[in-house]
Design goal:
By secondary structure, the protein is mainly beta. Helix content is 10%, strand content 43%. It is elongated.
Length: 286
Amino acid sequence: MAAPNFGEIGEGLRRSTVSIASQQRGQAGNGSGVIWSADGLIVTNAHVVRGEQLTVDLWDGTRLPATLLKLDPKRDVATLRVEATDLPAAATANAQDLRAGELVIAVGHPLGFHGALSTGVIHRIGPFRGMGTLAWVQADVRLAPGNSGGPLADAEGRVIGINTAIAAGGLGLAVPTEAVRRFIRMGPESASLGVSIHATRMRLDQRDSVGYVVLEVTPGSAAHHASLMPGDVLIGTAERWFTHPRDLGDALDSGAASLKLRFLRGERRRWREVVVQLRQPQQEAA
């Protein structure tokens, strides 16, 4: 069996890897993405697309505006759409088919170096200590800021994961392609508001309560569509006030398609209500 031509494999991966830039409140962010289908579907990390204005740079320098389709902050995956056709879509394979020690290739745009390529080996596939029960492709491969959202591929150049984080010990973590396909088909694995919050103790109606101060709202998230804003304080649902730090999480995990939240805004003298749509009918991307 002939040895793989890494020059050709690397060039193919570079053509299927895009650079993503985001703008929000005058602050810029950037990362990488993978052309998932030739008609303009892009897969990246949720943390790459926090800005409201998104642009995608193709391998040939073409710059296109992008629209956020959906995202899952918990799984850290998102999909975008650009108006283009005949794009060089990446080939994919199942991460679970790989074994420890097999060669992998990462491509991205770290630290301003476009199309940077690094190689490594699979460490394992499964949960990572301290990061819950989600499965990750764990690889001994060199990553840097800007690699987020880019492809992790096998020795044949087939994408088996979306690079996401650098874990303790320098291991790279990637979202397995199986999870990406499930997200494209069905949406987020669990309900998510799409906010960063800070829990605080407070007095409400002469009783001890818990409030969740909204620190950041992810564009395109359920909270964004419900017009929640940084500075709002989530204090309860239509049924009960929050009294324990886990109450908000329990409400989100109830399985309901929507959730009526009570919150404070501004001078915080009167509470308001808003209905947050947590789950919507999903359609598989073409």
